[in-house]
């Protein structure tokens, strides 16, 4: 009787194992099929995105402004009178690198900023180009959206037609005085020759040259330098506009803590290797450079901690 019971138990276990294996195979088949369908769908979507991203289009990506009675004639017409400017622009200017060969780029070049110049060419320069000759001359035809700058600042409004992110930054509370007419985009960004950044080059220090033309005191030389200057003014300042005072990228000590790491050791709070435990309350009342501490943020001639 015990032997019969053992046989029955063994048969039941085998039956259960067979059912379990069958269930696992069925589940594995369903999951495998679903995974294959999912992988196929993902691959199809990726293929469509790649095709859209890498395929040229036969339509106008940027519609340049039209001026009544004037047509686009191409940059080669400009070369006849403005030979040096044309040569410098086509061979060295950053903006010229945006042009692509072929008929689609016929209108992109000098006229993408200056407007259609057929009347200018036909009149022998008696009729001025529509845009960017004199900043105060009103535009013959308003360009697109309402400008963020006053109508008299025609040059800057033409720049902001393409540089929409900068247009938004000039609406922020702390900004360079371009909207007020005290500066021009071309004070820092020469459009016709070389790098679009006035001090552009391979050296990091060259990037500061645009700033030092106006901010000479920050150039130095300093006996004790702030190493951030070597990495560029834009490490701490955003060039066009910011929600923080003095065009800073952060409004408080977090700006300094990006480089001067904070750590706790032996119950002391170390910043830049120095114990700042006693200064935390003072720091809460201001920033590292306004709490009576490191006020010579660009460099100092007398103090290695840049305190004054």
Q: In what order do the strands lie side by side in the largest sheet?
A: 4-5-6
Q: State the major sheet.
A: 3 strands, antiparallel
- Counting helices, strands and paired strands, the structural category is mainly alpha
Global shape: elongated
Give unreliable regions as ranges.
1-19, 135-148
Which strand-content bin applies to the residues? 5-15%
Amino-to-carboxy terminus distance: 101 Å
Helix percent reads 25-40%
| Secondary structure tally: strands | 7
pLDDT averaged residue by residue:
74
Radius of gyration using CA atoms only:
33 Å
Number of helices: 11
How are helices and strands ordered from N to C? HHHHHHHEHEHEHEEEHE
Give the key terms:
single chain; 308 residues; mainly alpha; 3-stranded antiparallel beta sheet; two-stranded antiparallel sheet; 36% helix; 6% strand; elongated; disordered N terminus
Blueprint (SSEs and pairs):
Elements: H1 2-54, H2 75-79, H3 83-92, H4 110-114, H5 118-122, H6 154-162, H7 164-169, E1 174-175, H8 209-212, E2 224-225, H9 228-231, E3 241-242, H10 254-257, E4 262-265, E5 268-271, E6 274-275, H11 280-284, E7 299-300
Antiparallel strand pairs: 1-3, 2-7, 4-5, 5-6
Characterization of this structure:
This protein has about 300 residues and is mainly α. Among the domains are: about 110 residues, no CATH class; about 100 residues, no CATH class. The chain has eleven helices and seven strands. It has a three-stranded antiparallel sheet with strand order 4-5-6, with no helix packed on it. A hairpin with a 2-residue loop joins strand 4 and strand 5. The termini are far apart. The relative contact order is 0.06. The N terminus is likely disordered.
């Amino acid at each position: 009787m015990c032997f019969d019971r053992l046989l029955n138990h063994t048969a039941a276990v085998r039956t259960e194992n067979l059912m379990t294996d069958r269930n696992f195979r069925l589940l594995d088949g369903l999951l495998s099929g679903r995974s294959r369908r999912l992988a196929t769908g993902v691959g199809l979507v990726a293929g469509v995105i790649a095709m859209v991203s890498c395929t040229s289009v036969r339509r106008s990506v940027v519609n340049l402004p039209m001026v009544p009675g004037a047509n686009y004639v191409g940059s080669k017409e400009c070369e006849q009178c403005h030979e040096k400017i044309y040569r410098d622009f086509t061979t060295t200017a950053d903006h010229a690198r945006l042009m692509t060969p072929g008929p689609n780029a016929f209108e992109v070049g000098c006229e993408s900023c200056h407007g259609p110049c057929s009347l200018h060419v036909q009149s022998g320069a008696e009729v001025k180009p529509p845009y960017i000759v004199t900043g105060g001359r009103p535009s013959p035809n308003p360009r697109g959206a309402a400008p963020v700058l006053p109508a008299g600042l025609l040059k800057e409004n033409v720049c902001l037609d393409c540089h929409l992110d900068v247009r938004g930054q000039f609406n922020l509370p702390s900004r360079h005085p371009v909207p007020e007419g005290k500066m021009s985009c071309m004070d820092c960004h020469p459009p016709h020759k070389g790098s679009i950044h006035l001090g552009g080059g391979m050296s990091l220090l060259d990037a500061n040259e645009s700033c030092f033309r106006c901010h000479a005191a920050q150039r130095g030389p300093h006996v004790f330098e702030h190493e951030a200057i070597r990495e560029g003014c834009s490490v701490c300042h955003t060039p066009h506009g910011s929600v923080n005072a003095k065009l800073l990228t952060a409004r408080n000590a977090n700006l300094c803590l990006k480089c001067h790491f904070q750590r706790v050791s032996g119950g002391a709070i170390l910043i830049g290797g120095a114990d700042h435990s006693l200064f935390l309350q003072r720091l809460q009342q201001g920033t590292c450079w306004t709490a009576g501490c490191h006020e010579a943020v660009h460099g100092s001639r007398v103090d290695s901690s840049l305190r004054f």
